Amino acid sequence: MIEIKDLHKSYQMGSNSLHVLKGIDFNVEAGELVAIMGSSGSGKSTLLNILGMLDVADSGEYLLDGLPIKNLNETKAANYRNKFLGFIFQSFNLINYKTALENVALPLYYQGVGRKERQEKALKYLEQVGLKEWSHHLPSELSGGQKQRVAVARAMAAEPKVLLADELTGALDSTTSYEIMDLIQKINDLGNTILVVTHEDDIAHMCKRIVHLKDGVIVEDKKIEQVRASQYVQ
Amino acid sequence: MFNRDRWKEILEVLTKNWFRTVLTAFGVFWGILILIILLAAGKGLENGIRSDFDNIATNTMFIWTRSTTKAYDGLPKDRDFNFKIRDVSLLRENFPQLRFISPRNQLGGFQGTNNVVRGIRTGAYNVYGDYPEFIEQEPMMITRGRFVNHNDIEEKRKVAVIGQGVVRELYDPGETILGSYIKIQGVNFVVVGTYRKSSNDGNGEESQKQIFVPFTAFSQAFNRADNVGWMAITAKDETSITSMKEDIVSFLKGQHRVHPEDQRAIGYFDLFEQFNRVESLFGAMRFIAYFVGILVLLSGIIGVSNIMLIVVKERTKEIGIRRALGEDPWSIRKQILLESIFLTLISGMAGISVGALFIYGINAILDMNGPVDMFANPSVNLGVIMIALTILIISGLFAGFIPAQSAIRVKPIDALRTE
Q1: Which of A157, A220, B127, B359 has the fewest CB atoms within 10 Å distance of its CB?
Q2: Which pLDDT tens digit goes with each residue over A103-137?
Q3: What's the DSSP call for residue B375?
Q4: Which element (helix H / strand E) includes A205?
Q5: Which UniProt keywords apply (chain A) (predicted)?
Q6: Could you tell me which of A219, A191, A193, A159 has the C-alpha nearest to residue A65?
Q7: Element (H, E) at A194
Q8: Is residue A6 part of a domain?
Q9: Adjacency order of strands within the sheet including A2-13
Q10: CA A63: distance to chain centroid?
Q11: Which band of pLDDT confidence, cut at 50, 70 and 90, is reported for residue B2?
């Protein structure tokens, strides 16, 4: 699904440049649930941003489902993000004056899906994350866990090839974190490819494969026995 | 553009901070209101002055003879001469661009002696010998009967068309006027019509006290032979009389053996030139109205632009999220521009409405208190409204342009990081 070859990225910090990614080679098959781990500054967020086409690599190859991601202008990048990727953020990033339903329907709106169909689909995904009856509430009326569920539903709505989650449990307590991870695992069970950036060990172990990043290089890449989150959830 | 979700969002954004939106809108509202009121006031002045010109054919000159100041062609200086009736046909032949040429003769004058008698009543009036075309050059409303016609001219009928002022002074109310006789300097004329002129200038009263008789009958009755007192010449619409007057004057000089460089011998008055002078004054007034109005509007527009910048700043993160979710930059730019245009247009339309209401009020007051000198019916026409709306849309675009650019200049990744 994702193929990366020799990816480099550095940032200019004043007069000296900071080499963040120093040649990453990395493949993800369809249906995988991968955790990218590393301490802060290891380059894991940068990697995710590049994978999410929010940032551009200096050199290297990036193929998404066989499609080379290269020299995109903003319009094209937006289009690809919309069609191929779903984002889940640490701080939820819901639009606060839109209801849960409208938030979930947003990616579909950008695809030009008709209003009615959009709402039906959005409702379907809200139901899937267990928030159907909250569909007309504003984000400010939802708890953190609920907000993240809405965000998950939103990421799913456009039926992307890959879900990218950046510290998706970072703002949640452990019980809620497990609930969200349970949801993520269930979505993965349906065959969705998911990449999770995290620095929490227990969250990482709920994935099927852990990639360790340190100082811009992959130091460890192993398949693991998945810990099911459902056992922690009542 | 007519997308329900987009408009919903525009309304959501603009109503989120009511007070700020209203304050911003007020700047534009005020600008357009002032523009409308200034234009209406200018139009009112224009209407007032124009009504003095009435429907007079303005592409007209008056031309008359004086005594020569230069000896020429064997003739001495200080010679008196008159235009002759044959000058009219000669002018008509040589200047096909002319529409009307009315030779005129006059009797009596302002504050002259009594020259008209009817029974025991007398009055002092201007009596003119005229051709039927004259009514085209100086329109008057025929209230009874008719004006002088070509049969009158052919048969030299002694008929008269008299003004309302004459009627008031020579007749009792309710008396039959048509068919009655009045005696002008001892000669009886039968009244065949009455007129009223609708001018409200200084000699409004005087212009109702005129008597028009056929030119030929006038010449015969008052011994003018084939002399012409003066002429009123109107050119066809496509040529201005101002451009022709030199040629006409030198032609007439040739006919009457006047020295070509004799500036005094033939006098004329170019109504068109005078009218154009007034026209250019109107033009200047309109320019000032637009200039001041648009400058005031501009400060309102800058206010809108300013607020849009703040709105964009406040929404940086939101815009980042939207772009991460795949909204393309054009869509965001369009959104900001539409918000700006919408705000400008709504407040501008409010300004136009209030301006229209204001003008309506002024008109109502004017109607109640009767006409005022040099000011009538202030108004703006649909064309001006269209111009104002166009200005609004364009300025809304301008106001939104910089904020829209700044909205998409931030990279989505940076926008997401802002709190």
Answers
A1: A220
A2: 999 999 888 888 899 999 999 999 988 888 999 99
A3: B
A4: none
A5: ATP-binding, Nucleotide-binding, Translocase, Transport
A6: A193
A7: strand A193-197
A8: no
A9: A16-28, A2-13, A59-64, A67-68
A10: 17
A11: low
Helix (H, G, I), strand (E, B) or coil at B240: coil
- Going by the DSSP 8-state scheme, the letter that residue A212 receives in this structure is E
Contact at CB, A54 and B416, closer than 8 angstroms? yes
SS3 B323: helix
Q: Are B122 and B133 in contact (CB under 8 A)?
A: no
A10-67 pLDDT, tens digit each: 888 888 888 888 989 989 999 999 999 988 888 888 898 899 888 888 889 999 888 8
Closest CA to B35 of B293, B296, B390: B293
Which residues of chain B have a CB within 8 Å of the CB of A49?
413
- B411 to chain A: which residues are within 8 Å by CB? 54
Let me know if residue A9 belongs to a domain.
no
Q: Does B17 touch chain A if contact means CB atoms closer than 8 Å?
A: no
Question: Which of A54, A93, A107 minimises the CB distance to B413?
Answer: A54
Q: Quote the domain boundaries for residue A39.
A: 28-59+74-232
pLDDT score of A168 more than 80: yes
Residue A208's pLDDT band (cuts 50, 70, 90):
very high
- φ, ψ for residue B264, nearest 5 deg: -90, -25
* CATH number of the domain that residue A194 is part of: 3.40.50.300
Q: Which two tokens stand for residue B271?
A: 């109504």
Sign for the pseudo-dihedral over CA of A109, A111, A117, A120 = negative
Within-domain flag for A23: no
